[in-house]
């Protein structure tokens, strides 16, 4: 006869007791061993279930109103169940905090990487360093998942092929089981993975109009998340700049009056981000061997930058341009050295994002 470990026996007893309590709460009828056996644990025989229920009765958790009938929970059983639910709730809160912290850390890593890249460019070149991520509309969805946090709460996690990770805790209209959530995530990602934001929106909108939506409203929620990002994020939101103070050395005394305008353009970001986005689009169309752009003075098409040169390089992941990195500095810069530095750091940034994507895909495959 096989002897079970005490913790295994205890776990079986607790699971069966929870099952009996849940069944009685739902149907208000005494629960028999046959019903528990039908809904019971894998590998546990009917005889074992009868013996466990008898022991639970002896321990004061169950009561049998009639000798030939089923059993009902006692006050002691309800106390056990309430304590169990409280414990589960605490675990859920801890799990929610862990998940949120993990994704905040990932988002933080992306932001730190961009900021550190800008600082590195600035320190090595004594110029202002910048990184422009691909615009939201051009980003490609890798995954959009909903992770359970509680009965009415999920964490929406969006990962793009460009390495961006965004997440939001959101409330849903009705409770959803983890298994159901897995099915909805699979449906959504089968439809939108590998598509840009606009295409993904159209696909989800079509699904909603054709009635291919879940009663919990997650398909509609996914559509609204993509729509919100597309409509309210600008190129300026994707731009990182460090080392603007280095530009003061690029201005001659006679042009110092223009310095304020130049700094304002750089700090406000909108016009500068549009200029850089145009450069990124041009590099995207250019020959694969020509991935560095140099514009000098008035070639920059902005009067405020007439005393500066911009060297920029496309950042590629999997052959696709996902961003632009570069420097803004004096026209008398050492071009050979600066072009090599910008090009090398652009390749390094692309490799880092590629490695992050690979790690993420490996985790998803586990």
Short synopsis of the structure:
The protein has 366 residues and is an alpha+beta fold. It has helices at 6-27, 33-38, 46-58, 75-125, 178-192, 197-209, 218-232, 259-268, 270-285, 335-365, and strands spanning 62-63, 72-73, 128-133, 141-150, 153-160, 165-171, 239-242, 292-296, 308-317, 320-330.
Describe this structure in words.
Helix content is 52%, strand content 18%. It is α+β, with helices and mostly antiparallel strands. The protein has three domains: 6-84, Winged helix-like DNA-binding domain superfamily/Winged helix DNA-binding domain (Arc Repressor Mutant, subunit A), CATH 1.10.10; 110-133 and 235-365, Beta-Lactamase (2-Layer Sandwich); 136-232, Enolase-like, domain 1. A five-stranded antiparallel β-sheet has the order 7-3-10-9-8, sandwiched between helices. Strands 4-5-6 form a three-stranded antiparallel β-sheet. Helix 1 crosses helix 3 and helix 6 (197-209) packs antiparallel against helix 7.
Helix coverage percent of residues? Answer: 40-55%
Largest sheet: 5 strands, antiparallel
Fraction in beta strands: 15-25%
The total number of structural domains is 3
Gyration radius, in Å:
30 Å
Envelope shape: elongated
Order of helices and strands: HHHEEHEEEEHHHEHHEEEH
What's the number of extended β-strand segments?
10
Architecture per CATH nomenclature, i.e. the level-2 architecture of the largest domain: 2-Layer Sandwich
Terminal Cα span: 37 Å
CATH superfamily of the largest domain: GAF domain
Count of discrete alpha- or pi-helical segments spanning 4 or more residues: 10
Structural class: alpha+beta
CATH class group of the largest domain: Alpha Beta
Query: What's the pLDDT, averaged over the residues?
Result: 76
Largest beta sheet: strand ordering: 7-3-10-9-8
CATH topology of the largest domain: Beta-Lactamase
Point out poorly predicted stretches: none
Classify the oligomer: single chain
